[in-house]
Amino acid sequence: MLKPSFVIFSFYISYYLESYLNGTYQFYSLFFISQKVADYCIGFMRYENQERRFDKRRVIWEFEWDSHLHMINHTNIENRYFTSPPWHHQGMSMATKQQLLAWKTRGPDCHFHKIVRRYGYHRERITGGLDLYNPNFCNVTQLLPLDSLEDFLINHLPNKNYNRMPLNILTTRNLHKLRVNKMQSFGADRRIRVDGDGTYDGIELFEDERDHTKRMHFDLTEYHAYVENGGRLTEKQLEYWEWEEQDLPEYYEKEVK
Asked: Which pTM does this prediction carry?
């Protein structure tokens, strides 16, 4: 009999593995020269849930964010990927066999296959990706998919480390708006949440309740407009920014009983 925790862990590993392989396959398809692949790696980003808040919102706390995203506009991958602010701690990393073999001898001082203790060594240098993206060691470029970042967000289960860096907190909702704002800047009429056929493929809402008296009757006018516009947000929606921690009313921060 399998423990529930093992089943859940296996599910998440399978999910992120599929996301990584899909992201890597799309990246491979952009490069006709396969040797280029060792210069890049699809990255991950950690978040925590603010358990003390009534809405349990998700926040990213490990970076000093600018007011804009840092795009990786290298040849053949323009307008597709961005990177987190240094240092690129991401809690975990994945790689293909081709990448791992290349990183064994990659300069200036990678040897990713062999852990070498040195001053200030800690596990995050390897598992967290610090050495992987450090120009003094592996010098690999981190790629975070602009349009599918949700598939590469990792829940850091303690859900309390964000308290260490209150000034670095960025909600995933605000990060989403940074991404959407960037994607919408590529063209005034560009539909951003559509598949190859132009059909909307973003978040879908539906009510699976036959008894109309039990339904939650929300006004979905804005949602239907969002779908019709292919996932574009209005200027008003982009201007709305979630409250930062220090601006919240006191009752929001009370411990949940």
From this structure: 0.78
Q: How far apart are CA 130 and CA 113, in angstroms?
A: 14
Q: Which residues pair with 40 in a beta bridge?
A: 141
User: What residue has token string 């132009």?
Assistant: 198
User: Quick count: other Cβ atoms within 10 Å of Cβ 209?
Assistant: 10
If one counts every other C-beta atom within 10 angstroms of the C-beta of residue 230, the result is 17
CA 103 to chain centre: 24
Tens digits of per-residue pLDDT, 168-209? Answer: 899 998 898 899 889 888 876 777 777 778 788 777 777 676
Q: Are 166 and 48 in contact (CB under 8 A)?
A: no
- Nearest 10 degrees: CA dihedral of 120, 93, 37, 103? 40
Paired with 41 in beta bridges are: 142
